[in-house]
Amino acid sequence: MKKNKLLEKTSKACLKNAKQYFKDAEILCSFRSYGHALGFTILGDVEMGKSAIYNLYSKNLIPVSNLPEPYSTYCRENEIEKFAAESWWIGFVLASNIEEIIQNLIEVTQEVKIDSSKEFGLRLTKKGTQIQKKLIQKLLLENEKIRELEEYKTKAFLVKPNFWTITVDSPNLVKKSVVKQRLKIAKKRIKTAEPFLNFPINSVQQSLTKMLLTIAFHSILPIKKEITHFIIPSTINYVYEK
Q1: Percent of residues in the chain assigned helix, strand, coil, to nearest 5
Q2: Confidence of residue 15 (pLDDT cuts 50, 70, 90)
Q3: Taking the domains of the chain in order of start, what are their residue ranges?
């Protein structure tokens, strides 16, 4: 099986897994296990983000030569699974805003001049630049939500003493309304993400997508630690005195 075909298959498997997490979350919710249901919605978000990353990579839309470290190293050394796991947030943000992104790609396409001297072979008109900046700003603002997701993760899976409020945080304290709202949003994202995996784009839109993704990957560097910690929880090393 060729590499790109394998990545496409992986992308579809991730999306299928995301759907199953959301279904499982609904079942847990029906049994009033709201905390763990919330946790499954988060795992579903991660898998959906990975699905988008694998899909973009399989279509050569991620600009490997312009990726910041450590992502460029992952790609050079063919550690694509680690690359997808640590950059899933980019895919998730794209999947969450896909309707607006596609509309912007279509609009900006009309505001582009071919210019081989430019980095991506394109030169945006003034209007095209304004559209692009507006979209980039929206994507940057989405980055703040990773911290909310980190908070949800703690509440969903772990019992933890809160020394600020002198209380104990527990999955048992998660409210049904929080889970229901996240499931509602998840269903909408799944509905719009599936067509995204098969959305045809022309050569100009491909260059625009690469340009946008270059900025997006640089934008997540400040929150990379949160993303990595989210996927790969740090282990606690206990030192025993002899």
Answers
A1: 70, 5, 25
A2: very high
A3: 3-231
